Automatic annotation (TrEMBL):
InterPro entries named in the record: C2_dom, C2_domain_sf, INPP4
Enzyme class: hydrolase
Organism: Paramormyrops kingsleyae
Family affiliation: Belongs to the inositol 3,4-bisphosphate 4-phosphatase family.
This protein's name: phosphatidylinositol-3,4-bisphosphate 4-phosphatase
A GO cellular component annotation in the UniProt record: cytoplasm
Pathway noted in the entry: Signal transduction; phosphatidylinositol signaling pathway
C2 domain ranges (all copies): 9-137
Amino acid sequence: MAMTGSVQSDSPKAGGARAGPILVPELPLVEFSLACQNLASPARDRKPSSMLQVSVVNTLERSLAAYSCTEIVEGTRDPLFLTGVTFPPDYPLCEDTVLKLTVYDVRDRSAETRSFLGYASFSVGDLLKEQQLTLSLRTSDGTSAMGAVVVSRLRMGEAQDGETEQVAATDTTGQKHTVVCESPEGSVRDKDSGPLMNAAEGTSPQCSAVFRNPVCKVYSFQTTDSKWMLVREKMAECTLSFHIPKQLLKLYIQEDMTRIQELKGLGDLSPHWDNLRKEVVIHLGQAISSYQEVLTELSKMGGTFFKPSCCKAEKYLDFIPINLHTQRMQVTSPKQTETAYDIITVGAPAAHSLGFKNGGLRRQLVRFEAEKKSFSTTYQCIYFSPEDTAKARGVLASLSQLQPLIFSLADQLMQAAQQRSAESLKEALKTLCDTTERFVHALKDKLVKTALLALHAARPDYVTDCVGTNGSPPREDGPALLKRQNSVPPRVDYDEEEWDRVWTNVAKSLNCIIAMVDRLQESDNEQAVSPEPALADVITSHTPDADGWQEKIYPLVVTLKDCVMEVVDRAKKSMTFVLLQEVACSLPQGLLLRQRRDTVFSQALTALSCGFITRLNAGMQDGGFLRQLHLVGVLAQFESLLSTYSEEIGMLEDMEVGIADLHTVTFKITEAKSSDVVDLQPKVCGWRECYTVEVPLPRCMFKLLPAEVRGQLLHVYPVLFNVGINQQQTLAERFGDISLQERINQKSLENLENYYKSLSDNSPSKCLPSFQMQTNLEELLGTLSQHIASRKKKNVEILWLAGVICRRLNGIRFTSCKSAKDRTSMSVTLEQCSLLRDEHQLDSEHFSRALDCMRREGCRIENVQKNIKCRKYAFNSLQLLAFPKCYRPPDGTYGKAET
């Protein structure tokens, strides 16, 4: 299926990005800044206003491909452009490649009315040799024009004797500034390069482990001490956008197929419950067919790595996150180590194809639970809560894992007995005991017993005086039903102690094995010791011979297996009956709601997996972060800019549930089988409400991890903060209801405080990174609490504080709006410039100009181009009046209707 709006990997405007083997691209081989000198003066009635466009000349085809533009600089004939030019390492450049620089006089920013001033061209080889070029401008007919362009291959840093050259240029205030140009030999590769980011050695350049199609931008900004810093933006698509959803769809299908078999295995039911079972099986079959159809369509879409915003309502793409990208800002400034900041941008996880006429997940789940209770009253059956059904799935999954494991360990015990290996016998017995203990513990829950009694009451041979309407038992809660089972015994012999006897037999049979192993070992050592009195009643009275260990243990192992099988059979049926009631309570609405939840969760989990891998890669050398990951888990902070009005309420309700469901997700870092790209892709396993994402690392990286992190389950603590900023939020604040936003923010604040408390209790403060801003975390949390309680309209300070706290806690940052394209771009660029100001001393006079640079020619405008084939943010002048001022794009960068 073709996906309209996607960007081809060889699009020149997309930075010339080819499908490259990198997670975050290497330091480009060609990176330079631009300045002009002595440009022609405009008419007397206005100030100079100039910009410069860079194009790549294809000499063979005699064509010109626009590559990038600088910002517009006003008020000087000698402009120094803060926006530089950078080429990704996989861009097809060679020394003979010719670059054309065209200078324009911009008469009207909003209308982008401009006039040609002149052009100059140079080859990449010239720049590599000279490091700095001064090129005279020429007119379109090749004659001389007024002015020149200065091209400097740069790495910003402090001047060092004998190693630097200086270029003088003028900023918007008319002051002269010196840009320090360092030789390329002094440049270094990105510190974040590694096996995760680069394709496996020797593989095709088209192969990539996690991220592809990078877009790179570079800027030079002035600090408060008149020095200069180099800032790079890097944005890349994530191959997980399709990889994770396809795995989830397969797991959904597998789980539903298993559920059908379990329902059929329930045995005879009363006519009422048998009819419900048939209906559930039919609807589960339809859900499986629907998911298989979606999976088939997705399998046809090879070579695509992101879902553009214009496809958000496509049915077959509903499980794919919208416009998922990772964005990294790297800062190199004088006397500071290179620093990187990551943000994951993604459209709000929501089921767009299902619509929002009836609200989103939160509202529909509340309604669904009310319907379940009503159903329970009408049909007089036990009501099982969402926690019960989640627990039932967990018990079923545990049984599926533990039963074959117990049987396998029992066979290993038999093998050790056959070999008469005392040490092997002891080790096998210990493992068998531990696993059986886990098995018994999983079943010692009141839910299992209650469900067994409910299932028994649904059998066709249940006593007639207990039967209610439609052949179902009278509605009673668990204790009342248990009491009735005692007072009115059914025709089939069963009482409330029956289940206790069944699973207790497992422990007794294991005790018999333990005692027999002890006696065999004692006999073999000629140390005849009488068995303990407590076990005498379960062990045969004769003394075993020195030979025949296997013969003595065999019948006890068979008994253990039989007991385990009986427990598994009864427990599976009881838990399956719980799930039958969950689905049967609201057909077909219940399954449609589950499909919606599956869809939203798929988008949320994919974004989370992208963020976790990015954060793990950045923290591989950070012992504090790895210790925190093991002791507490990782914080995932989602920032949302959705309004609480119209359809976006439904999107926010979807997103709230989808993000909350991530708390059941765990990550496990494993060693990759090989360095092949396929083996470096994460793998999802588990079932609904309990998924684990396995993240394989190459052997060389896996060995660097502390032992307590390798192969262990690492937990996630998701929080969501939302502040609507657009014109629809204005309507919501004046005429609507913003209680949803207030509740989400308050709940997330509590979760954030709980995470910080857990971290403080379990991990020393030295685990946390240091920042220039010295406000401690407790003060920041207190300030955030005050802002949330203030109920101030469009209080974007909440988002800023939450982001700061997240970074201070080594967390993962996500930013979302409806499509992660327009409002998200405003938020990301604002956050980046705020970090430059607070952490890297960006000159306050340059703050607005730096913000405009990033919004006009940075990675985010390229993201808009990728999504809708237009370099315009989807705002109009009237809408922007409702936006906080710091979220408004520069003139000339907006105007197209939202997509």
